[in-house]
Inverse folding.
């Protein structure tokens, strides 16, 4: 018998609900192998639009970012005239703030002070002058880590009821897993699909009323722009949420990693911090807020570099002293991620040698998003049995599947969530990998799939073609 | 919608029962003035904050380092001091102290970061081939894509091959390899995994005194019980099984011992455990049914004659099936130390042996929550386990750099031991391995009293004074744990040789002054 058996494993870890994507992803990898081995299928490749991973999907990294990183990693390049002058200058500037002028050194636990200062300046610029202090900014190896660290502060097991975190349905699974892994409870609130996945405060109120006797709600987690919904909150909506958090004494966690992915006409991203500040006292001094950003999304799409930060607003000064403690066991955040953050908030400017290429690359990605968004809506809304809310931001779209009863019954017979089963069939028969709505959370009796819109245009076109064919056949079979 | 569907926990969990029968926990009520506004207590305040956070301490980056950073600022601002720079001999960061990166490694990661460089003839072919191979295994051929949460498959395979080669052919299965964000990530993950219980049933984890304070910090945060076992300073920080036995027997009264952590080569003590000792520890773990955690990040840092690194896995398998089929082990390694010193890349791995398959599923699930380790760190790890071969163009430079780095460290280890042992009141064990020295200080009674008045541990008092007078930043022994009534500090042997000589000289002079001042 094992020394360490499952019984001895942390119950918090055991309570984590695993992702539904694992078997799907495994099967996708298997099919890819089968294809290379010559197994015949009705498609020649597997297209993965499941992950929020633009590079995996074929989007190219930004040249300036990669040139600077390469020069930082191998400083001989700084003396080579193969790289533009501004790249070399930036690399030298960044190496100057690394101990021993090496990206292989540890940094301060909260991140390189120079980069924290630049982030503060960026935030202030973004928010029309609202002050931001580097002291309130903590870098981490990806925003998942800083999200988990903030949760660690909030979630404890000292009370008889678990600490509750209001979490949007739909949301990506690792946040829910992080809450569960710390012994907290996910309090799900639904977004209003018929109104473009709007967040309504009435729903937050309803959910609080319902869960108040089974847990101790302490935090409200919002994702803006939404993942996977693509909804960009209006200023009014943000104000309502802030007011609600103040009334109900909830710590606000604003996940804003998609803030650069805005493509709807007349759509503007405005940060929770900015709105909070403009609401004036007493709220602007009272509401406790943690805002998160990262290099994984937006135009950079550098998920693998693991760069993220959290800005803490209005935290209790006594508590702030301990924030540092939580980050300590990481030693320091990955340096490549920190550098990428600096490059994200300080891109080439007009007049810089790298600017023309940079501007063109940004333009291409923006055009890709705008094109894909309208194309996806156009195609999907014309397929019987699929309906799709317009999206104005983010990287995904979450179309609704109106599955025939026969299909739902078949899935139930197989003991599977209907949309997961749909995704499995779509993968097998059409070689397209999308995420099932049950993974992200949805109203009972509704089914969805999630597709990444941040995908090269021709790939998107091919995905839509295969999806349409598959769906029409599916309807024929199960109607 | 079923509330229970969401407020879920494992089915045997008592808390589910308590949730529906307990009263709501009272929240602190906001203070209101008459008009309803006024000073409100924060939602997240000292009463509502996770109390375990308060217990976390990590001396390596603790108050003395914060003071050192302040002094650096003061120096920049032109404040006059008896020294011109702060020497941070507190942290095991080789590059920060001037060690140069391994050329081949940096060439390959740069090629991976910016693949256009593959056309540049300034890069050797073997570096380019490595980069191409690695990029092929990255999503979209980019370092910017997520990998599987356990790490890029090809790299895990390379790690397994490295382990096999290192351990004389003992098989290593890539499925047992988990890549991580530095070794710390994997260590904390394992501790998280095996921590459970409350009160007397809390998990107990054995760790050496002195220890690397990541362990104590993680255990404090997890509210697990730290079971301390003492290394024997008089026997060059050797480990006696009878001490392990004493510690675990005492611990059984108030916790459930689950794991035994050992750092070999040791941090801060630098001892390289003998093969016999490793066998004894394995036998002990088997008898007491403890999960073994072997922190082997300094495995290439062995200097003393007669000392050799033996991996726990190798010894385990050479002890035969009675042990190799049953003892549960996790071994940790990283890119931060050895001859490459790439701390900032956050590369690392753990290999798990004989882990219960159900437990392994939980482990795999747990690591997926943090998505994946940084890809550049995974790439660097791949190069560490797969360095240039003798028939490759980059081999000559590589082996020269590697050898030089390790030789210089060995020289500095010896130099440090020699010089410290000439100082009356400082006694230094040989630095057999790792990157540190942990000498014992004899402090005058008056100094100990002065420290007490300040509310400081005597070695903290000593180190603070040393910092203020010489700019040398060390970490007091109290940050690592030590026998009651003894005092130490940890100093890295990383500053460049000439600088190290000056540091040692300054400490010698300081110690003399200090002893005189407090006699």
């Amino acid at each position: 018998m094992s020394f360490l058996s499952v019984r001895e494993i942390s119950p918090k870890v055991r309570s984590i609900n695993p992702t539904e994507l694992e078997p799907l992803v495994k099967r996708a990898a298997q099919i890819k192998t089968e294809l290379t081995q010559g197994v015949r299928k009705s498609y020649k490749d597997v297209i993965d639009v499941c992950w929020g991973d633009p590079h995996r999907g074929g989007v190219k990294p930004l040249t300036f970012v990669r040139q600077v990183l390469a020069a930082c990693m191998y400083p001989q390049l700084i003396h080579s005239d193969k790289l533009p002058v501004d790249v070399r200058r930036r690399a030298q500037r960044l190496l100057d703030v690394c101990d021993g002028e090496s990206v292989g050194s540890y940094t301060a636990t909260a991140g390189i002070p120079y980069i924290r200062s630049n982030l503060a300046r960026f935030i202030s610029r973004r928010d029309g002058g609202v002050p931001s202090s580097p002291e309130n900014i903590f870098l981490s190896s990806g925003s998942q880590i800083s999200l988990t660290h903030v949760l660690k502060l909030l979630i404890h097991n000292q009370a008889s009821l678990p600490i509750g975190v209001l979490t949007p349905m739909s949301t990506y699974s690792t946040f829910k897993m992080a809450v569960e892994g710390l012994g907290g409870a996910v309090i799900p609130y639904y977004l209003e699909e018929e109104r473009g996945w709007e967040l309504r405060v009435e729903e937050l109120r309803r959910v609080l009323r319902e869960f108040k006797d089974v847990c101790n709600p302490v935090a409200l987690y919002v994702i803006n722009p939404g993942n996977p919904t693509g909804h960009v909150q209006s200023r009014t909506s943000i104000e309502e949420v802030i007011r609600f958090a103040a009334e109900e004494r909830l710590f606000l966690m604003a996940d804003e990693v998609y803030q650069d992915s805005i493509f709807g006409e007349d759509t503007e991203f405005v940060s929770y911090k900015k709105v909070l500040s403009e609401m004036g006292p007493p709220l602007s001094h009272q509401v406790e807020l943690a805002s998160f950003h990262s290099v994984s999304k937006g135009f950079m799409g550098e998920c693998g570099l693991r760069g993220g930060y959290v800005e803490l607003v209005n935290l209790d000064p006594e508590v702030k002293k301990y924030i540092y403690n939580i980050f300590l066991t990481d030693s320091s955040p990955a340096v490549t991620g920190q550098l990428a953050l600096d490059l994200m908030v300080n891109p080439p400017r007009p007049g810089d040698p790298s600017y023309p290429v940079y501007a063109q690359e940004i333009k291409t990605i923006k055009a890709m998003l705008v094109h894909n968004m309208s194309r996806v809506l156009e195609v999907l809304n014309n397929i019987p049995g699929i309906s799709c809310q317009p999206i104005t931001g983010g990287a995904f779209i979450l179309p609704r599947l109106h599955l025939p009863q026969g299909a739902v019954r078949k899935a139930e017979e197989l003991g599977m969530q209907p949309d997961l089963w749909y995704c499995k069939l779509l993968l097998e028969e059409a070689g397209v990998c999308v995420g099932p709505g049950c993974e992200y959370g949805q109203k009972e009796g509704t089914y969805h799939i999630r597709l990444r819109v941040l995908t090269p245009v021709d790939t998107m076109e091919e995905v839509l073609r295969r999806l349409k064919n598959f769906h029409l056949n599916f309807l024929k079979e199960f109607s | 919608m079923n509330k229970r569907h969401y407020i879920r926990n494992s089915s045997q969990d008592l808390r589910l029962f308590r949730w529906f029968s307990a009263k709501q926990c009272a929240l602190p009520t906001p203070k209101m003035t008459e008009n309803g506004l006024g000073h409100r207590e924060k939602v997240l305040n000292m009463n509502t904050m996770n109390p375990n956070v308060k217990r976390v301490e990590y001396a390596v980056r603790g108050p003395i380092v914060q003071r050192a950073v302040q002094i650096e600022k003061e120096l920049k601002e032109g404040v006059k001091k008896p020294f011109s720079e702060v020497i941070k001999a507190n942290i095991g960061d080789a590059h920060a102290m001037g060690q140069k990166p391994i050329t081949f490694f940096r060439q390959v990661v740069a090629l991976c970061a910016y693949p256009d460089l593959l056309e540049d003839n300034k890069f050797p072919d073997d570096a380019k081939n490595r980069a191409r191979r690695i990029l092929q295994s990255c999503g979209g051929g980019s370092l910017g894509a997520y990998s599987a949460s356990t790490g890029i498959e090809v790299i895990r395979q390379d790690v397994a091959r490295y382990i096999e080669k290192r351990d004389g052919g003992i098989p290593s299965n890539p499925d047992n390899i988990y890549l991580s964000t530095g070794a710390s990530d994997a260590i904390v993950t394992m501790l998280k995994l095996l921590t459970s219980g409350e009160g007397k049933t809390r998990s107990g984890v054995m760790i050496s005194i002195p220890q690397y304070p990541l362990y104590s910090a993680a255990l404090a945060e997890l509210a697990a019980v730290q079971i301390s076992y003492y290394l024997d300073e008089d026997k060059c920080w050797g480990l006696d099984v009878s001490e392990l036995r004493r510690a675990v027997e005492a611990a059984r009264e108030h916790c459930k011992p689950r794991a035994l952590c050992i750092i070999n080569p040791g941090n801060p003590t630098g001892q390289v455990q003998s093969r016999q000792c490793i066998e004894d520890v394995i036998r002990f773990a088997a008898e007491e049914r403890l999960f073994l955690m072997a922190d082997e990040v300094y495995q290439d840092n062995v200097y003393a004659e007669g000392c050799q690194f033996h991996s726990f896995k190798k010894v385990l398998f050479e002890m035969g099936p009675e042990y190799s089929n049953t003892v549960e082990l996790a071994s940790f390694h990283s890119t931060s130390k050895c001859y490459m010193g790439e701390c900032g890349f956050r590369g690392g791995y753990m290999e798990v042996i004989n882990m219960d398959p159900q437990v392994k599923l939980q482990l795999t699930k747990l690591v997926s929550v943090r998505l994946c380790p940084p890809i550049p760190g995974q790439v660097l790890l791949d190069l560490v386990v797969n360095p240039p071969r003798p028939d490759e163009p980059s081999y000559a430079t590589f082996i020269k750099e590697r050898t030089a780095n390790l030789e210089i460290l060995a020289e500095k280890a010896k130099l440090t031991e020699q010089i410290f042992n000439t100082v009356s009141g400082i006694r230094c064990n040989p630095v057999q391995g790792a990157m540190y020295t942990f000498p014992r200080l004899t402090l005058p009674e008056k100094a100990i009293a002065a420290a007490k008045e300040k509310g400081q541990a005597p070695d903290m008092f000593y180190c603070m004074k040393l910092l203020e007078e010489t700019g040398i930043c060390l970490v007091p022994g109290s940050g690592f744990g030590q026998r009651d009534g003894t005092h130490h500090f940890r100093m890295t042997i990383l500053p460049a040789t000439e600088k190290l000589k000056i540091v040692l000289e300054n400490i010698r002079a300081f110690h003399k002054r200090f002893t005189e001042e407090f006699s």
